[in-house]
## 1
Amino acid sequence: MPETGDVERAFRRESGRAVASLVRFFGDIDLAEEAVQDAFVVALQTWPATGLPPSPAGWIITTARNRGLDRVRRESSRTGREAEAVRLQEARGTGPDPQDVGPVADDSLRLIFTCCHPALAPSAQVALTLRLVAGLQTPEIAKAFLVPEPTMAQRLVRAKHKIRAANIPYRVPRDAELPDRLPPVLAVVYLVFNEGYLPSSGDELVRAQLCAEAIRLARLLVELLPDEPEVHGLLALLLLVESRRAARADGAGRLVRLAEQDRSQWDASMIAEGQTLVRGCLRRNQPGPYQIQAAIAAVHSDAPTAADTDWSQIVALYDQLLALTPSPVVALNRAVAVAEVEGPAVALGLVDGLAGLDGYHLWHAVRGDLLERVGRPDDAAAAFAAALERTDNGAERDLLRARRSVL
Amino acid sequence: MPQYLLSVHMVEGEPSPPEDVVQDMYAAVDRFNAKVQEAGVWVFAGGLHPADTATVVDNTKGGDPIVTDGPFSEAKEQIGGFWIVEVADLDDALKWATEASAACQGKVEVRPFQSE
């Protein structure tokens, strides 16, 4: 019989889809969220005894719909419009059919395009999508953006209020609007994947569900926008990174660096799919940031062992990426590749010259690695210590401690 | 259906465009207004005299109301005119605002009315 943790995980996996369907049904984001929350309480009470339902998503949608209808009937403060819409749907016998989720009509897509509406500030777009589509809780989102929790909570409240007050429509944009509406959506999907791949806090090494959700959304976007190269690039990138999941943690759940991973555990079919997409992008020759990052990942995936990695090719790709998206983090990643081509001393010079990264634990970790390689173990230890201070992730901390301890 | 205020804001003190440009703008706004009416989304619209023709009345405290010459806000940005449209959702309001902004050569703020 499932325990509370199992119930929570199963619920979290499906709640995004449930919220999306119910936003369409109720026409109100808060009501949809509250209804799903009510269903969660019921799940916690009943699933441990009855077991997980065969279709958790269907169960959640049905239960939440009923709870939501109860709320509407009870709360006379609801605006007449919502109550009327709900009564109409009740009368017609329509409502979200848990089985009725076609690829283009996917409610999650409606929800993500609404969350990423241009009338919302970019920070609100990402926060809202993580909350409603990915099902992250507010504290986790706050951590991911390095802002205090009350600030993030306010941001979400304001964004939902604006959607309601200004009547931001709940739909997928028309064809002509799609190319402009896409960039924030891609950015959000990327961030969702990152949150799942390496959570910003806590001891879970990966949150597979978030990565699967991000990949699912990326696939839907490819279906919807087959002619947008960056959409293919994003899917390729996510697949190629996800392909390494099994090798990324050892039996004890410890983080394994790319150079040390057992490449036989990499998922060959994901790699094949990712590389096919990358080749398609290269043929189209309309490069963009996601496509270049995917190409870099593909170079890694091409190498049977770490020693076979074509680092010069990677440096060349980073040069391209830096030209498109100049940022200290990209420059840092480029320096890591430069170390393999021109040696750690040159790379250390580059890394030390980067401004604004003192709060970023990976800058300190990279410095630690390079300092160790140029034979400065005391400075390396200090750098790893600085990195430790700047991350809460249990698996990363274990790795940093291990690196520091051998110095 | 929801109603939106599309308000045009000008920056006081900026030099007026040459007369022929102003006439083009009036013509463009006329064409835009006709479109809005034809589409059946027109509720009301009008251009306002400049802010220095305004008068502020304060009757919030007991006693005599206070009447002051000039606009409410001391800011350089002042409202110059507005449309009120009734449309299905914000996307439609933004489309009209996009045309309005081009026609009157000013930034247009789109604000939803509270529903009854």
## 2
Amino acid sequence: MSTLTLTIARSMVRDAISEESTTILSDTELGNILNDGYKEVCILGLSYEATKTFDLVEGQHVYVIPETTQVSPIVNYIEIYGRGILEQFPTQLGHNGEVTSGKGVPIGWFQWGNLIVIDPPPNATYAGASYKTVTLYCSCYPAAICTTTFTSLPLEFQESVVEFGIAFSLFKLKRWGDAAVAYNKYIGNLQRKRFEYIEKLAEERTMTEIQHNTIRMMGE
Amino acid sequence: MAGTWPNLDGSDLLTRVRTYLNEYSAVYFADTDIYQWMAVGIKDISQKSLCVRRILSTQALRSTRTVATNVYKVYYVEYIPSSGRPIMLPKISPTEIGTRQLNGTLPQFWYEFGSTIGIEPTPDAIYDLKLYVADIPKLTITKQTSFSSGWTAGATGFVLGTSAVHTGAVTGSAQWDTHLVTATNYTITFSVTTCGTTGAVIPYIGITAGIEVTGIGEYAENILSAGTDPHLVLYANNTITIDNVNIYKEADISAAGDQTELEPIWQHLIVLYATFRGLQKDRKWGPAYMVESIYSGQLEYTKNLILDPKPDSYRNLVYY
């Protein structure tokens, strides 16, 4: 499918639920449902990946995640001037890493609501011009409501918005059993796509070597 | 949609519930019923997912072991020393009071009991704490990104523009002109972006004071508004700059313009919960519990995916 448009998505949903008339299910209602799905696929699929940045301040360890829509994205990874920082349990705060006068080289982070906590608080060097930029690798809400095109959504997740639309438009038609089946299909496919496209697993060193053992299929 | 994207306000949520219940205007399902179901749903979502996460500023007082809380759950307690590194205190059970080996008189452990937390050892002075909590869900009243309108500065000290900048030793005030509601729990969040060595700010609602803040950073405080003249007022001394004040009120969603503070990912679940209750009223218990099972399953799935911590380890950095 080429880039999904709202018009195409509505058409696909109407075909699936066999409801071409706008008398019972209006385009406005269907548009609302599809935009709700747009948001949900971006977050539950972690599919709209974007980076955000802010600057460290000497001695400050709690920062608001910068976000123009004033809702907080999901932070997956953090990089401080070219170095990945480990996500830690909140209980680790203050117990690891070396500090001088309560400040040091940031070695850990965690998210709490719309806040990022950096541990330990950065010293003058890491709050200085050469090091202070923090890059957040986030899964975000769509930048704007869809009126024509689902621009924030990667191509591989577009079908999930249509599946969401099918499942929840069936509520209006009181086809509860069909809605349950469609919902299970939606959430299962979304999870599968998230595993396939979003989960960032590093390859081990052995993947570059000739394997000691492989599983041979019968007939090979 | 009426809410500010990607949020859904009261009217947006009501519209979606009516879509799912297939009743365009109030005939069988009154608006008041739907708002009530949504209010209960917001609490149910917040209580089961513990999704309203804040870092609240508070203080342990001298000779008082316990600190009162008004939240669903305290997860962690951070001690903020006057100088040095903030540290998360290990959690103990009340059984362990007086049995742990202590190192000095500073706060070293904490426990939770009822609507309080306890500090071990009993504080011998006032100590600044931050509580990492799952809070009671509130309505968003305002998110102020500028002080240039809607605020009034006192006679001295504050200059109000995009930021509220205070200078001088004389205490100055900056008041948000809109009345709040009396005897109501509010959460106030704000940023301190610059602070001199003696700079300080205390938020008040009427005569009820919050916690004094004396350093740069992000702050959140729960304050019970006073019985008279409930205005939000920031009182400051010396050099300090405040930005981005947000105000949240503990109240049920009940009108078209009400905006829940729950993040958008939870807002569709509010619609599902209200739909479930509507179907119950309509005596369609099979479909009602089908919807409820979608609601419950997705609530748990979302909590596990985006709220539960997934810390890294050394293995994430080493090339094996």
